[in-house]
Amino acid sequence: MLIIDSKDCENIDKALKKYKKKFEKSKALLQLRERQSFTKPSVKRRGEILKAIYRQKLASGKIEA
């Protein structure tokens, strides 16, 4: 649960902005989307390896972004 401290004279828009920022930092939406479907650990690992290979190729200059 997210709690936002607001002062008496603070605008509701500012409080909403603080809430949105806190919500984004908590990564609750990412967790929710991740839990919607099960991904096998071997598939996750393969994706991580492919991303690492891609990043390495970008860093070495073999691929231009």
Automatic annotation (TrEMBL):
GO terms for biological process: translation. The keyword Ligase does not apply. The keyword Ribonucleoprotein applies. Signal peptide: none annotated. GO terms for cellular component: ribonucleoprotein complex; ribosome. Keywords: Ribonucleoprotein, Ribosomal protein. One of its GO terms (molecular function) is structural constituent of ribosome. InterPro entries: Ribosomal_bS21, Ribosomal_bS21_sf. NCBIfam families: S21p. Belongs to the bacterial ribosomal protein bS21 family. This is Small ribosomal subunit protein bS21. The gene is rpsU.
